[in-house]
Design the sequence.
């Protein structure tokens, strides 16, 4: 579909993104988590799904209205989204914020389906940013939160490429960095949840990366930063007239036909099945781009 012109989200868990089918409010749910299945020690967190109302989604549409008029989003296959919940697996573009809010608000505006994005733990360390994303429906990206969303038949937005796909190097426009991140596939199989491959095009054309982790000195700093902070550094990119202002580009969103996760069995522990679903979704996203 290439246009003419965001938790516990590493190997085991779903990868981050920003409500289930329909427009009904979703109440906060809390309870104790189980294990995540990861070998390394993880912090146990309660299940917590922040409330999301139709009024909040309408507010998000109004907030991003001026930006929408600039990027003029065009949707393909929006009718493929089930009204009773699905897992949207999408490609991340540079910085992750140039297209995701528009996709979420367009899904709500056109279909009245609210997509709950999964947020990496790092988002929750920034108070104002955290509150803004939570108001837009973001849920901390833990396995148990995703299970709760699936039990409620909500629509979930996941970015299997995570932070590495956001922090692109030079020449990596529209390249997927999914690696062996199986969390979304394992949970889809466990719950028999339909997966919608999603392709986003336009945002990677807004900026040109000029400094990344391969750049001398900056690259050394970036490695140290990631080692101690646990999160990759952002690349330095330029747009209009060599400034950080993104170039105005039209945004395109393609939603593929649902992939039936029940075709891959029902065991989240079946690595071969999860890998097969992961690859099928990935190839569909590549074709969509």
Sequence:
């Amino acid at each position: 579909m290439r246009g003419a012109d965001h938790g516990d989200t590493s190997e085991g868990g779903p990868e981050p993104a920003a409500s289930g089918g329909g427009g009904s409010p979703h109440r906060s749910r809390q309870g104790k988590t189980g294990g995540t299945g990861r070998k390394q020690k993880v912090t146990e967190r309660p299940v917590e799904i922040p409330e999301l109302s139709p009024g909040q989604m309408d507010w998000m549409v109004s907030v991003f209205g001026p930006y929408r008029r600039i990027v003029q989003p065009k949707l393909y296959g929006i009718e493929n989204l089930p009204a009773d919940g699905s897992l949207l697996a999408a490609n991340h573009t540079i910085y992750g914020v140039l297209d995701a809010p528009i996709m979420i608000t367009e899904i709500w505006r056109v279909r009245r389906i609210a997509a709950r994005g999964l947020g990496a733990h790092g988002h929750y360390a920034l108070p104002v940013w955290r509150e803004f994303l939570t108001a837009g429906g973001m849920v901390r990206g833990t396995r148990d939160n995703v299970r709760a969303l699936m039990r409620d038949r909500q629509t979930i937005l996941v970015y299997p490429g995570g932070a590495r796909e956001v922090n692109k190097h030079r020449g990596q426009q529209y390249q997927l960095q999914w690696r062996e991140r199986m969390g979304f596939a394992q949970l889809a199989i466990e719950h028999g949840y339909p997966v919608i491959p999603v392709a986003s095009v336009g945002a990677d054309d807004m900026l040109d990366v000029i400094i990344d982790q391969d750049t001398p000195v900056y690259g050394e700093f970036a490695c140290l930063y990631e080692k101690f902070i646990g999160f990759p550094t952002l690349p330095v990119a330029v747009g209009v007239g060599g400034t950080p202002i993104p170039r105005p580009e039209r945004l395109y969103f393609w939603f593929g036909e649902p992939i039936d996760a029940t075709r891959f069995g029902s065991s989240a522990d079946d690595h071969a099945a999860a890998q097969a679903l992961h690859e099928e979704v990935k190839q569909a996203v590549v074709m969509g781009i």
About this structure: Residues 3-13, 15-25, 27-42 have pLDDT under 50 and may be disordered. The longest strand covers residues 195-201. The chain is about 30% helix and 15% strand.
